[in-house]
Amino acid sequence: MGSSLSSVATSSTENIVIVGAGASGIAVLLRLIEHAKNGKRIAPIIVVEKASPPGPGLAYSAACTGTILNMHTDTMGLYYNDPKHFTRWRSELSSGPFPSRSQYGEYLETMWSEILSQAQHMGLEISLIQDDVLDIDRHDDGTFALTLADGSHLSAQSVVLALGNFTSTLNTHLLDQPGFFPSPWPTSQLQSIPTDAPVLIIGSRLSAVDAALYLSKNGHTGPMTFMSRSGRLAKVQGEPEPFPRRYTLHTLARELESNPAEGLVKLTTTLMDEIDGVNNGDWTWIQKHASPKAELQADLCAAQEGNVHWQTVLRHTAPVIERYWHCLPLESQQLFMAKFFTPWMRYRHGMPVQNAQQILRLMESSQLSVIAGETVHWDDNEGIFIAQTTAGPIEAAYVIEATGQECHLDRIPSPLVQSAARKGLFTPHPMGGVDVDFDTLCASTPGLYTMGSLTRGTHFYVSAIDRTAAHAARIADALVGEPRARPLHIAIFLGSDVASHLMVSDLVPRLLAEGHMPFLFLTSSTETRPMAAPDSRPFDLRKLAFFERELFRKHLSPRLKEYGFKGTRHMTVWQMQSTYGVFVQEIPDSQGTSVAKMLQNHFIDVGISLPCGDVLTLGVIDYFSSSSHHLLSLDGGVLSTPSGNKKVGVQFGYTLRCLHEDSELGDVIDRRTSPLGHSAAILTGVDKEYALAVQIVLDATQLVTRGKSLRNVSWGRTSHTSRHSYLTAEELLQCCHDRGFDLVDGDSVVKMLVELFVPPEQREMLRKELDEVVQEWYVKQGVRVSKA
Ligand SMILES: Cc1cc2nc3c(=O)[nH]c(=O)nc-3n(C[C@H](O)[C@H](O)[C@H](O)COP(=O)(O)OP(=O)(O)OC[C@H]3O[C@@H](n4cnc5c(N)ncnc54)[C@H](O)[C@@H]3O)c2cc1C
Known about the structure:
The structure is a single chain. The protein has 23 helices and 24 strands. The chain has 4 domains: 234 residues, FAD/NAD(P)-binding domain (3-Layer(bba) Sandwich); 112 residues, FAD/NAD(P)-binding domain (3-Layer(bba) Sandwich); 101 residues, no CATH class; 288 residues, Rossmann fold, CATH 3.40.50. The chain starts with a strand and ends in an 8-residue tail after the last helix. It is an alpha/beta fold and 788 residues long.
């Protein structure tokens, strides 16, 4: 045990102390670093970790050598808003989506080193003490005193207990027997088992699978038995698929929050309905097979053939399941734990295909069997363990308990946890672990935070890295006094212009990453101008309308829908619907009331009208007039701006207004501009300028999500005397004339559309198609264009 602090005893009470530098502690630190980068003042941080090196914790340390991750690599990033961070970090990808746990341990170690170097660079104080914290006390002034194994003390204003998982040992009556392993970890201890010995593994889910595979890799040839109450194995994970109705799971969270009484019924029926939908009414996957081996064969086959669509629904509950859980009444939570927890874990947390294949091989060679049973005792006379199972008594020389996590406070073998409970710093949660605030993870004692399996009673789903990262971010936010970011339902109204589509294609994944759910409303896709009426606008304006709107919406977008391209930089709303599972609805202009109903049904908090003009009918505006809703309107275009020598210059800009009852135009809450290039057609830079709008919208959402007022950042009421104003059509034409450039450069619009929305292999084909459409349009306009 050592310390990198010269004198621990003199530590300032302003400190933040983080106990545990596993994935949880590291994720808290990473988020604090982000806050520091954004200018937040962070108190000195002391990290206390008993194991060396910091980072891997239990799951990704040498204790779990020889096992692979059981969650897909794309969910394992340590940043709550960047789940693929680990995947990008990996240099070795040949092991596929479930690399070794030791590789993840290396990632954690690297993150720890990065934290230290970034902290040093920013002048942020982070110190490490390698010791075991045994005791915690709270002084009358609200500060904490921690006692370390070496007898030294630490003072702190805030303490984060990121202590990790405590494995459960239900068979305490076997603890003194030789050959009993109360947990499969560290795996290395299992090497002491003779390779031909019969082994009973209590449990049949992921830890049991890990234990059997570890033994097998170490040359075990003796019989192995999984014994569990159900006698059924965990299911097999298929490749992750998008869930096109993902938004329903978020709407369900809102429904449960607004009416928790019937929560469990609503929850189960909705999930079953969604599963029914993705599986086309086929429920054969849930049937019990003649034997666990037959079931595993069928499950493996289904996973490999991509025929496990039901998993898609369950997988997408990851960010919202804690909200479902949190609003269930206690009796429903108890009922769920008693009746549904085991099947939930079996279906929700399946094993990777690689593991399933190996388990099947062990079963096919009759080395491994899976049976139902509950009790095991030690027979003194025979000197052997005897398990009572549905297949009769089974004898084993060795027993490994692999039943999962321990969440009961009084059974957790941590002196620190026991100290906090004894001193009343923790309040036990009736569903296990300790009671913490849902949003901040603060325990019943202000300043004391905890996360991981200790918080299962409050959050239910606490162990996977995606939740670790989300919870760590909330703790770090609370430590810097940032209000919790509330997940928002955001309606985006967009028209047919290509700039709005670029914006929304950039916005949607970024809003989703922040935990929000976007709902997209498309205004009428048909041309409002009656076909018979001749278009009397000047040619340049007709050309602008064609290249800005019609070409994309009427010609390119339907083609992209037809081809179903993947992996492009930008997506159409239809591609986003199938990829991200966001709600997309086309709305004719007249349907304000039915739109308002949709907004209400989906619990929309914020409406954002992108520059499309005409959708904000009375019904929609009325919906947002409630004080808890916000309606934001974004305008964009070429602005006249004052420049040197009182000359009027032109810039491209966006203005965001917050609309409300007192003012038709609303309050301007943000306006940003960017220079217009002087060497090209005026609207050529649309693919760059939309980024400005995206940032404006994201910044406003950041305020709303944390309950901060938008009006505080107001530029003041809009007035007609505003120094910046958008150019009228005539001014725009005049501006083109003065500059000697076209309003729109058709060739570059076609090039841009193809590059942004079409994968490289299909670009040539789509470019030709669009060129033909353009030629036809020119012909209709009576214009001859010669192409170079
Ligand atoms: C065997 C196993 C396999 C898993 N596999 C996966 C997986 O594949 N994918 C996934 O998403 N999740 C997995 N999990 C869930 C896993 O718990 C989390 O992914 C993650 O490891 C949790 O991080 P943590 O920091 O909370 O806990 P840990 O990583 O265990 O870290 C806790 C740290 O706290 C330290 N500590 C504890 N008490 C004290 C004290 N009193 N004083 C000082 N230091 C202390 C410990 O030494 C440890 O380093 C697995 C869990 C286990 C147990």
